[in-house]
Amino acid sequence: MKYFNFKALSVSVALSVGATSAMAAECIAPANPGGGWDFTCRQIGKILFDIGQVDAPVQVTNLAGAGGGLAFSTVVNERNDDVDLIVAASSATTTRLAQNAYGGATADQVRFVGAIGADPGVIVVAADSPYQNLNELIDAIIADPGSVAFAGGSAVGGFDHLKPLQVLTAAGFTDITAVRYIGVDGGADAITQTVGGFTQAMTGDMSEVVGFLDSGDIRVLAVLTEERVPGFEDIPTAMEQGYDVVAVNWRGLYVPKGISDEDFNLWAERLQAVADSAEWQQAMTDNGLAPFTKVGDDFQSWIDSVVASTEELSREIGVIQ
Amino acid sequence: MEILDNLALGFSIALSPWTLMLAVLGCFIGTIVGALPGLGPSNGVAIMIPITFSMGLDAVSALVLLTSIYYGAMYGGRISSILLNIPGDEPALMTTLDGYPMAKNGRAADALVISGVASFVGALLATIGLMLLAPLLSRVAYQFGPGEYFALYLLAFATLGGISSNNQAKAALASCIGLMIAMIGLDPNSGLPRLTGGNLHLYDGIDFLVAIVGLFAVSEIFFFIESHGKSSAAGVTIDKVRVPWRDIWSTRWTMLRSSFLGFFAGVLPGAGASLGSFMTYMMEKSIAGDKGKFGTGVPKGVAAPEAGNNAAAGGALVPMLTLGVPGSGTTAVLLAVLVTLNITPGPTLFTDRPDVVWGLIAALLIANFVLLFMNVPMVKVFVKVLQVPPAILLPGVTMVSFVGIYSLTGSYFDLLLVVGFGVLGYLLRKLDIPTVPVILGILLGHQMEKQLRDAMVLSDGSAWGLIYTRPSQPEDISYIATGLLIAAVLGFFAPIFLRRFITKPQRVSD
């Protein structure tokens, strides 16, 4: 009798576990808690549940390693048809994919659902720098590429490195391997090196420089968006100064390749609903993100073009062959 | 008396029963996390982040909890260093050198009390330093570019050989093995994978916690099996637990000196607690000279690194709060938490959010006293660990470390690496090669290479860039870099020449 009860109990437990796991969506943050990807998963996951887009709270899993490569290969190789899985992504994801930094994995092995916010790229000099605007800085590099060294928070070939190179390419400068760059431990460290006089300019994200802007240690030469950023209206864009470059660190999601078009579109709708919610607007303001919404097939084709241009630029600077 | 006003504000925030409870809880969790090998302060804090989010803590409460864990882990790391010869976390590495010999001599309780008091002195002085000097010291970071950091790391490396008192060549060999291991992973300046064999798990390099658990915990197991349990400190009869006032008094200058040096190492964003405890140990060893008998289990050898690493933990908060630049792995995690809580550390934090800064400082002062009163009486409990039969204790500790390592990345690959390092550790110890320099080689090697390569990029490949570190001022020599480089060269060569005149080289024996 006891045996029977136990068996029945275990069956019901197994059933209920199976049932909940089929319903609850999972968001993989490919980094440790506290970073940008973790933020994406926790915020989007929370809002998805709060506004009733999913029935159960989204479970956040931190799967750190190889700069997101470990999570990418897990999704591709082990969970390629999991309809309940979303993965946090950003510019770093596509940059690394374009540079073959995920051990042979390519961007077309997953589907990019959308981006719903972005941290605008900036180019910054110390307050006592002789360069007053972006044109002066770019002209100085074109005249003598050794005269300016950049510091940024990503490794060589990373997104922060590519930003000034994109501007220089737009200015018609071709000898981009001569441009000096050191990758340090985050944007604040890059500013420290620049204010200390070891490098002449800093390349990074808007959220990284706000504190130093308020304290008067730095001057922002340009923001790399289409229009001036709300709240920072006195900072000119690179486009205004004659360089057709938009470089933002977007925050978004990808899903496994093997799911159906209906499931893909369902995730796209859910993400759009998050983007439209008041909760997300508040989260963006709190975290220094600018509006940047691209969802569904529209986003996938934008990603394809970004990957292609990143690949070309990376080949020119020799990060990939 | 602006500082007193600010401090009053801080205590008014931190002295609420709720915050106090969080501080006590954090100290307790931190001590445990620090004591468990394989779980260091940075993953201890990282594990708690989701919990602070789900508890819905406000910024000050979350910071109090997480920094209490941070300080607690710095205290706790010494416990397993002393009792088991297994560093609980990387800054506690140096404490094994004299702490474990003390335990083997039956003085485990004394070592724990002395190191507890040293931790308290170091952390207290560092918190006071943070309070008085933080905005001022933040300017120090502007004086250190890649060239200066490289010189600092070179100085540390030049003195590595001195760790082993018997045979410097073996210590040098061990640090080279560490350097070799540090080369695995992505090349810092091109991002290309190096010595990884195409394995994604190796792209991030080898975590030093993996190496620590392997070289210390797993190799200890191998020795235990080989000797049928006779080589361990476990089972050693312990003297009655009492406070060794005389030893504490005799180490007072050591604690003070180490606190200052440790704090300074912490303030430099590129250095951190591990370098802090290493440099304080080497400094005290050279001050004491041969008569100091460092390495055989002397109180000063326990007090120096513990005061040093706790002071560095406080020092590392200076660049994190005033610049937003993390000085260590743990402050990097804390920084991420702050950003998530919508607080952007930086030059304006002290004026924009005095409640956060002074609440934190007050909480740190409270946490410090809590930790002292928690750690000293609990020594009685800690030493009981040694009465657990070794056949249960060592496998148990190893199992816990394995769980800790698995929690780092959630991959079994690191567990295989741990076993591999265990075999390496066993072989090295059989050959009488110290394992501490291997870890330091891994820890410092990464940074030293990165800084050298960056300095070379800035100077366009010219070696003069190591002295003329500011490209915008080509005529101005860097006094910091030059001074450190001269010290490094002297530190490496001087003992070789001077030894001839002072004492004859000792016969190698162990």
Defining traits:
A: 321 residues; alpha/beta; D-Maltodextrin-Binding Protein, domain 2; 2 domains; ten-stranded mixed sheet; 20% strand; B: 510 residues; mainly alpha; two-stranded antiparallel ribbon; disordered C terminus
Kindly summarize this structure in a few lines.
The complex is a heterodimer of chains A (321) and B (510). Chain A is α/β, with parallel strands linked by helices. Chain A contains eleven helices and ten strands.
Structure report:
The complex is a heterodimer of chains A (321) and B (510). Chain A has helices at 2-23, 36-50, 69-78, 91-98, 134-143, 159-170, 187-195, 206-215, 261-276, 278-286, 297-317; strands spanning 26-29, 59-62, 85-90, 110-126, 149-152, 180-183, 201-205, 218-223, 248-256, 290-295. Chain A has 321 residues and is of the alpha/beta class. In chain A, strand 5, helix 6 and strand 6 form a beta-alpha-beta unit. Residues 1-22 of chain A have low confidence and may be disordered. With 510 residues, chain B is mostly helical. In chain B, 69% of the residues lie in helices and 1% in strands. Chain B has helices at residues 2-14, 17-35, 41-54, 59-84, 95-104, 108-137, 146-158, 168-182, 208-227, 245-250, 252-267, 272-288, 299-323, 329-340, 349-352, 354-375, 379-384, 390-409, 413-430, 436-458, 479-502, and strands at 185-186, 193-194. Chain B is globular, with a radius of gyration of 22 Å. Chain B starts with a helix and ends in an 8-residue tail after the last helix. Chains A and B meet through helix 2, helix 3, strand 6, helix 7 and helix 8 of A and helix 3, helix 14 and helix 20 of B. Chain B: Pfam families: TctA. Chain B: Keywords: Membrane, Transmembrane, Transmembrane helix. Chain B: InterPro entries: DUF112_TM (IPR002823). Chain B: Residues 20-440 form the DUF112 domain.
